[in-house]
Amino acid sequence: MATTSSGAGGAAGRAPAADQVRNVVLVGHSGSGKTSLVEALLASTGTVQRQGSIEEGTTVSDFDEVEIRQQRSVNLTLAPLLHNGIKVNLLDTPGYADFTGDLRAGLRAADSALFAVSAAEGIDGLTRMLWEECAAVGMPRAVVITKIDHQRADFDACLDACREAFGDAVAPLYLPVGAPVDGLIGLLSQKLYRYSGGTRTEDTASAADQDRMEELRGELIEGIITESEDESLMDRYLSGEEIDPKVLIEDLEKAVARGSFYPVLVVSAPQRIGMLELLEVMTEAFPSPAEHPLPAVTTPDGKPVSGLSSDPKGPLLAEVVKTTSDPYVGRISLVRVFSGTLRPDASVHVSGHGRSARGHDDHDNDERIGALTSPLGKQQRPVTQCAAGDICAVAKLSTAETGDTLSDKEHPLLMESWSIPEPLLPVAIVAKSKADEDKLSQALSRLVAEDPTLRLENNPETHQLVLWTMGEAHTDLLLDRLTHRQGVAVETTDLRVPLRETIGGKGQGLGRNVKQSGGHGEYGICHIEVEPLEDSAGFEFVDKIVGGVVPRQFIPSVEKGVRWQMEQGVTAGYPMTGVRVTLYDGKAHSVDSSDMAFQKAGRLALKDAVDKAQPLLLEPVDEVHVLVPDDYVGAVMSDLSSRRGRVLGTEPVGVGRTLVKAEIPQLEITRYAIDLRSLSQGTGSFTRQYVRHEPLPSHLAAKVAAEAKG
C-alpha cells in the first residue's frame, strides 16, 4: 500500500460526503486486543493525545461503569477518526457470545469488517461463525493479527489458523521482523519499516528476512492476480514478467472492496506497530457507503421501496443501531444514516415493527429529535448534520428503540430487521422491596428498549417475571444495570417450569360443605366422578342430576367451584387439565344452600375424587434443534440423551455442520444455553419450541408433590 500520513484532530467537523466515509466494524473474541487496537488507532491519528487502558478506566471504547468494573467490553461503541481526509467510523464490538446483539448491530451499521485475531491465542468458534455470516452477505473483510509482540506470539501458526478458518483467499500484506518485533516488511513494496515510539522509518531488510519474504510474496501476488479482472496478468506473471506494484495494489483494493480477497495485517498496539498500514487498508481498500448496497426497505404497511441510495439529498432513511438509557441524561440513540440528511431539532417518523414476540410492541410515532453529536467515549461532540453514510448520536428520541427506522414524516419507511439471535436462558427475578417493585416496570422497559436480545415475560402459569437472556454474562450485565443505572434492586429466584396436573384413571369424590351455627349456615353436598379426557387437555363438565337433588340454580355453582380448584391445582399447585367431571348426585337445604356453599362443595369434591383417580403431573416438552460442527455431534447427542431427551434425527447443514433434532423436557434445558456453549466451545446454537405436555416420571413427580406440600 502507499505510504501516507495521518491527519490530526477529531472527526467531528463538517459532514463528509459518503465517498469520504468508511464504516468498519471491529470483531474478535474477548482478549483478541480490540480495545487496545482502537486506542492505538485513535492515538496514531491524533484523535486522542494519550493511549488509555481499561485498567485505568481511560479507554475510549470501554468507558461504561460496568466495563470498568468488570474490565471487559460489553457494549457496541463508536470511535470516529480521521486519516488523510477520510473519516473512519470504527465500531468496536463485544467479544463475548452473550453480547451478540451489539455485535450484529455493528455488522448492520458497517460496510466492512475487520477481524482481530490474537497471535498468542488463535481463533475461537464465535469468530468463525461471524466470518461465515459476513461471507453470506458478501461483506468485505480484512484480518488484523494483534499482540504480535506477546511472548507466546506465533505469526506463522496464527496465519495458518486464519487460512484454515477463513479460506485460501486470506493472504498477508506484511511480515513482522525483529525479536521482539519492531518492524514490518511490505510484501508488495519489499520495504522494511521500523517503528520507534509510534514513528515509522524505512530500513534495509536482512538476507534472512528477504528469503522469508519471497515465499509469502509469491503467494500474495498469485492471490491478487487470481482475483484480478485483467485476465492477461496471470499469463504475464507465469512468463516471468515483473508486475508493477501499483497495478497489484489497485487490483488488491478492488478485490478487497468487493469482498473476494482478505488481506492480513500485523499490529502491536502498545508499540503502535502497523497502525499506518492498517489505516491505509481501511481508507483505500474498504468500500465507502456509496459502494455498499442498502438493506431492503418497505413502507410501514409492507410495500417494497426501491431506488434509494447513499444520497445526502435523497429521502431520509436512518436506523437506530444502539440505544442507551441514563436516568439523568435520558435516552441517546446511535444512528446510521443510509439516505438523506439528519439535522438537529428535525421532526422524524419512528417505525418499529416485527419484534412483538420479544415484548416490543409495533409502533409508528412522529418525534422531534434533539441535538446531534459525534460520540467519542464519554464525550459528545456537537455536529450540525449527519449525511448519508455517516453515523451519529441523537438525543431525545423518547420512544425509539434499537432497530427502529427513522424517516421523513410525510414518507415513512421501514428497514428490514437485522438478524437477532433468540435469547434462550431464562432467569426469574423479584424486586427486593416494595419501593423497588414500584420502579421495576419502568426500569425493565428501558432495558428492553436498548437491548433487542432481551425478552421480558410475565409467565401467566408460574406467575414469575422472567428475563430471557443470552447467557450468564448477559444476565450479570442486566442485573448490574438495573442496580447501578436504574437504581432498582432485584434478586434471582428459582425458575418454575409450567407443570400441569391431570389424572390417569377414574375416581369418585364427595364434596360436603355443611356448616350450621346459630344463624344462617352453609349447606351444599355434591357427588362427582372424574375421568381423563383422551387428549389429556381441556375440561368437560357433565350434568347428570335427576330429580332436582341439586337445584338447577346451583349446578353452575358446582362447576365454578370445580374450575377454580382446577386452576389452583390439587396435587402440587399446578393447573389441572384433561379431566371430565360428572355431577351425578347431591343434597341441598331450603334455607342454608347458596351459590357459595355449592362452589365450596365442588372444590372439596374435586380434591376427594382426584386423590382416588391416579393423580399425575405433566411436564412441558420442547422440540430442540441443535446446530453444531460435525466434531461435536456425538457429544451433543450423548448429552441430550442424558437429559431424558429423545433424538429424532440428524441432517447435514452446509459444510461441516450438523443439525440435531430432539425432544427434551423443559425441566432439563433451563440452562442449556450455557451448557451447549461449554460443550461445543462456543460454536453451537439451538432453537426450542413447545410441542406438548407429557407425564412426569413418578420419582420426579413424587419429589415435586413433596416440595409443594412442604
What does the model show?
- The chain is 27% helix and 31% strand.
- The chain has 710 residues and is α+β, with helices and mostly antiparallel strands.
Short description:
With 710 residues, the chain is α+β, with helices and mostly antiparallel strands. Helix content is 27%, strand content 31%. α12 (555-568) links the parallel β32 and β33.
Radius of gyration: 32 Å
Report the biggest beta sheet as strand number plus sense, adding barrel if it closes.
Answer: 8 strands, antiparallel
- Percent range for β-strand residues: 25-35%
The total count of strands amounts to: 37
Spatial order of strands in the largest sheet: 18-17-23-14-15-22-19-20
Mean pLDDT equals: 89
Give the SSE layout.
Blueprint: E1 21-27, H1 34-44, H2 65-70, E2 77-83, E3 86-92, H3 100-109, E4 112-118, H4 125-137, E5 141-146, H5 155-166, E6 170-172, E7 174-177, E8 183-186, E9 192-196, E10 199-203, H6 207-227, H7 232-238, H8 245-257, E11 262-266, H9 275-284, E12 297-298, E13 304-305, E14 317-326, E15 330-339, E16 341-342, E17 347-352, E18 363-368, E19 372-376, E20 379-382, E21 386-387, E22 391-395, E23 405-407, E24 414-415, E25 425-431, H10 434-450, E26 455-458, E27 465-469, H11 472-485, E28 490-493, E29 500-503, E30 507-515, E31 522-532, E32 539-543, H12 555-568, E33 579-587, H13 595-611, E34 615-629, H14 633-642, E35 646-652, E36 657-665, H15 672-679, E37 685-695, H16 698-709
Parallel strand pairs: 1-3, 1-4, 4-5, 5-11, 6-11, 32-33
Antiparallel strand pairs: 2-3, 7-8, 8-9, 9-10, 12-13, 12-24, 14-15, 14-23, 15-22, 16-21, 17-18, 17-23, 19-20, 19-22, 25-27, 25-28, 26-27, 29-34, 30-31, 31-33, 34-36, 34-37, 35-36
Helix pairs in contact: 6-8, 12-13
